[in-house]
Every structure is written in C-alpha cells, then in structure tokens.
Specification:
4 helices
C-alpha cells in the first residue's frame, strides 16, 4: 500500500480547501437524514469468518487471493458500467497521530474524463468550501474557494492537487478519490498481502454500515513497520451493489499490547450511480455552486 504524506502550512489559506472527497446530486442543499461517521458503526448481525495465517496457492489457504480477484473484477465493472455517481462521504483522518474531527461532504464523480466536485458540510467552519477537478483541464490544477472574508478576498484558487495548500490536513489528494480508485487500492493491498506471509485475514458476513448490509474483509499485516504503512485495514463491501462503501486503516500501536489507532476512515452513504452528469456539474460557472464565476452569470 502506497505511503501517503500529509503536509502543513501556516499560510492564510491553510484552512481553506483541503478537500480530499465527494458530493451528492442536487447542488448544495442540506441533505436529510445524514449523520456523521461516528454514528454509523459497523454492527454485526450474523458472522461467518475465514482466517489464514500463511500464504498459499488456493483461496482456502489464503483468502486474499479471492479478495484480490474480487477487487480487480470490481474495478473492471465500475469502469464498464458506472459512468458517474454521487454520494455523501463521511471521513475521519489522523494527522500527526491526532485523530481529526469527523467530516461530512457531498461529492460528484465522473470517470470520463475523470472529474470531481466536492462541497463541505461539516465541520461547520468549513461549510461551503468547494473544489472542482477535471483531468486534462486547468493545467492539471483543482479550482477551489472558501467562504467568508477570506473567500471574498482570495476568490477562486487554482491549486496543485498534491501541493502544499491542497494537501493541508489531508492524507490523499483529490485525484485519488472515488470507489474506482479504492477498488484498485484494495487490489494492490491484497496483492502485497499475498506475497508477504504470515498474514491474517478475516471475512465476516452480516455487517451493517448504516442501513446497508455488508461483508467485511479484515486484514492484519505482519509486524513489519518498515514494509507496511498500516498494522491492519478493513473494507466493507455492500452486498447489494457489490461495491466497497467503507474503508478504514489503522496505524501501528505505540506499545505492543495497545489497540492500533485509527489512521483513516472513509464511508460512502447515499450512493447513487449513473446520474448522467454533464460538464456543467464540474464547472465553476455553475450557478448552483458558490463560486464567484457562477454568481456573475
């Protein structure tokens, strides 16, 4: 799994647009019935567990072989069948060993060309922040703005997605967002786990993420902190959609007998596929968005 870095800045824009995520259909109106990540625990209904402590050539010996195959098939199916989607993203990330407050965002994603629009709902001091990224446009930069006096003074900012300002407080850039990239990331992590033994894998059925029934794949990596960024990770796969809707990873504990601290958690709720998004959905001139360019029209 690729190591991701987090950057820091004392620049006046440092609280602006560290927007690593997604949006729902219908502009920026407040969605109903959406809670934060802490209120959406995965609750077991019934369980069936398969465990492997050593790698091997068959699925029975190493369940990650099946995980690797599923993740590649999921990525291929998304590329073929999902043109775009909207969701509400519930996000929690650790920065410098300190777990940040839950974040709640709206997101729109289109695959061709790869395009992202995000709008912050929570935390409250970020509400109204927006960012747009379209591959091959704007010299490869994202276009973002914040609210209040700062937003009025700075207007729309053109930022490198992996630059100092855009990565403030974020573990991943906007360009790596989405369930397609997540499926690819799971495939890469599974491939690495197959090659490195011993690796413990638990596959548990009947889990709940919100009102969605899922199966959970829980991978515990070997105790090799130089080779593995995370001590363990989980992915929750929606049974109906057969798509990943939650990913969480854990840092290495400071003490051997301590619980591993949460490093990052991303939960996709209210996922809606194939909305026929157009270029307008990823344009700062869209009058339904909060960009100054849209207000001038």
């Amino acid at each position: 799994m690729t190591r991701m870095l987090s950057y820091h800045s004392s620049n006046t824009t440092s609280g602006l647009l560290m927007l690593g995520v997604w949006i729902a259909v219908g502009g920026v109106g407040e969605p109903r019935g959406v809670t934060n990540a802490a209120e959406l625990p995965a609750m077991p209904v019934s369980t069936r567990t398969v465990t492997s402590s050593s790698g091997g050539p068959t699925d029975e010996q190493h369940p990650l072989l099946a995980v690797h195959r599923w993740a590649n098939q999921a990525a291929a199916r998304i590329e073929k069948e999902v043109q775009d989607y909207s969701a509400i993203l519930l996000k929690r990330e650790s920065d410098g060993g300190v777990l940040g407050d839950p974040q709640r965002l709206l997101v729109k994603v289109r695959h061709q060309p790869f395009s992202v629009y995000v709008y912050f709902y929570d935390p409250s001091d970020r509400r109204g922040d927006e960012a747009i990224y379209v591959a091959g446009s704007n010299d490869g930069n994202l276009l973002a703005h914040t609210t209040g006096i700062t937003g009025m003074l700075l207007g729309t900012l053109s930022l490198q997605p992996d630059g100092l300002v855009a990565m403030e407080g974020q573990r991943h850039p906007l360009t790596e967002m989405g369930i397609l990239n997540l499926s690819r990331r799971i495939a890469q992590a599974a491939e690495k786990g197959i090659q490195d033994v011993p690796c413990q894998v638990d596959i548990t059925h009947g889990q709940k993420v919100g009102d969605r029934t899922c199966r959970c794949i829980h991978v515990r990596n070997p105790d090799d902190r130089q080779r593995f960024l995370f001590s363990q990770w989980r992915v929750y796969i929606d049974d109906e959609l057969d798509l990943p809707i939650r990913f969480e990873a854990y840092d290495w504990p400071v003490e051997a007998d301590a619980d591993p601290p949460l490093a990052e958690q991303y939960t996709y709720t209210r996922l809606r596929l194939n909305n026929s998004f157009t270029d307008t959905d990823f344009d700062v001139r869209n009058p339904r968005y909060g960009y100054a360019e849209g207000r001038k029209r």
